[in-house]
Amino acid sequence: MSYIKNGKMYINYDKKLEITSQLSIEERSGQMSDVEVIERVFLVFLGLFLVMFAIGTVFYILQGIGLFKIAKREGREDLAWLAWIPIASTFLMTVLVEKEVHQELRGKVTMIYGIVLATSLVATVIIPFVGSIISLFAGLVAPIVVLYAFYFIAKMYSMNPVLHLVISIVTFGIATPIQIFIFRNRKRVIPDGPDDQDPVVDYQ
Questions:
Q1: Radius of gyration of the chain from Cα atoms?
Q2: Which of 112, 164, 190, 202 has the highest Cβ tally under 10 A?
Q3: What is the spatial distance between Cα 156 and Cα 201, in angstroms, rounded to a whole number?
Q4: Least confident span in 103-107, 123-127, 167-171
């Protein structure tokens, strides 16, 4: 507060006001602004995304290498490249086990899987509400078909296919790329393959 006396201006210095102002500034500086909060949350999510992307890329490469090698060992060099294409790689899995599955499904697994995926896509576009239900059902069936195919791949290259199937289910498929990668250099455990003359019987 200021006042004039004898033609001179005097300023009344309020020490309490200065202390209050300093405390207010310190309190504001100790608190993050909304922008800073948003920036930190964004950085956290970005970091998590990059970590998950890196892990997913590693798993994708492991599965690609494994399926590519298995396809070549099974005499399907013409289709081995499908191992590197998303979705198509699951079709490759069904193709590789067409002669290994249950008798009544032999030669039909890939077709069933294709119909399930096509139904899921088409139903959602053509029939909005009912199609969503059909798509949901097909979305549940498709992973089952893939797990079915994986079981027979495990049966071809392991003495404990059920164990591998359980591990795949429990990990929601996360372990599958690693398992397929492990199978890539193994010889067949069951006959009717290129390595049936020298089957391996001690794989877990």
A1: 32
A2: 164
A3: 11
A4: 123-127
For the chain, the first-to-last Cα distance in angstroms comes to: 87
Q: Tokens 């509400």 label which residue?
A: 129
Q: Residue 145: what residue type?
A: V
Residues 45, 55: contact at Cβ < 8 Å?
Answer: no
Nearest to 183 by CA among 170, 172, 168: 168
Q: How far apart are CA 13 and CA 4, in angstroms?
A: 14
pTM, to two decimals: 0.73
Q: Which residues contact 173 (CB under 8 A, 6 or more apart)?
A: 143
Q: Give the position of tokens 């053509």.
A: 126
Give dist(CA 157, CA 163) in Å, integer. 13
pLDDT tens-place string over residues 152-193? 999 999 999 999 999 999 999 999 999 999 999 888 885 544
Q: Do the Cβ atoms of 151 and 37 come closer than 8 Å?
A: no
| 156 Cβ contact partners less than 8 Å away, ≥ 6 residues apart | 97, 100, 183, 188, 189, 190, 193
